Amino acid sequence: MWYVYKYGADIYREYINRYCYMDGLLGMKYYSDIKSSCYYLLLSEQLKFINRMFGMRILLNTLSLLIDMVHSINLAVKVIIGSQEAAVKFCPAIGSLVRLLMCAVLLISIVWRSEKAYEQRSRLMCLIDNLLVNKKIDESIVEDIKDFHSLIQARPISFSMADFVRIDNSFLVSIVSAVVTYSIILSQSVN
After folding, report:
1. Most CB atoms within 10 A, among 119, 130, 156, 168?
2. Number of domains in the chain
C-alpha cells in the first residue's frame, strides 16, 4: 500500500516539475502562480478520478443507507405502537434508532466533507477577488492571477455520485425528505 502512495506522489511531483515549471521556458518572474494553476488542475483531475472510481459505490451505499434508515424507523414505530411482538418492549426500538443514528452520521459526514471542499473553493475565489480589487500588486502578476481565477471558476470542485447526484446540503435534505415520506407511508400500512 505504501508503494502505491509513494509511486503516485512521485508521478505527480514529476508532472509538476516537467509541465508546471515555466520560469525558464517563458522567462516569467512569478512561476509560483503558474504552479498554483497546475496544482488546481491536478486537484480537479483527482476529483474526476474520485467521482469516477467511487461515485457508483457511494450511490449504492447511500441507497442502502436510505433503505436501512426507513426500515429502522419502521421497526421502531412498530415496536413502540405495539403491532410487533417483542420479548423486551424497547430493545428492538432502541437498536433500530441507534442504527438510524449511525446511518445519519455517515451521510452527514459525507455531505459535511464535501461542503468543506466547496467552502474552500468559495473562500479562494473571495481571496483572489479581494487581492485583485483592494491590493496593489505588480502588473506582471495580475494576468496570471486572473487566469488562475478564471480556471477556478471554469472548473468548480463538485463531488458527485456517478455523475447522478451532487453531494451537498440539498442532497442531505432530499435524503431526510425521502426517509420521512417512506416512513410515514410504511407506518400507515401497519396492520
Report:
1. 168
2. 1
Our CA angle for 119, 121, 126, nearest 5°, is: 95
Tell me, yes or no, whether 9 lies in a domain: no
* CB-based contacts of 74, cutoff 8 Å, min separation 6: 183, 186, 187
Reported pTM: 0.71
The Cβ of residue 163 has, within 10 Å, a number of other Cβ atoms equal to: 13
Question: What would the pLDDT profile of 116-147 be if each residue is shown by its tens digit?
Answer: 999 988 998 888 888 888 888 778 788 888 88
Residue 99's closest CA among 78, 79, 75, 82? Answer: 75
**Containing domain of residue 113, as a range?**
55-188
Spatial separation of the C-alpha atoms in residues 173 and 150, rounded to whole Å: 31
Which residues, given as ranges, of the chain have pLDDT below 50? Answer: 1-8, 19-33
Q: How far apart are CA 78 and CA 63, in angstroms?
A: 23
Question: How far apart are alpha carbons 1 and 174 in whole angstroms?
Answer: 37
Task: Give the integer Cα–Cα distance in Å for 102 and 134.
Answer: 47
Contact 22, 34 (CB under 8 A): yes
Q: Is there a domain that residue 64 lies in?
A: yes
pLDDT at site 24: 40
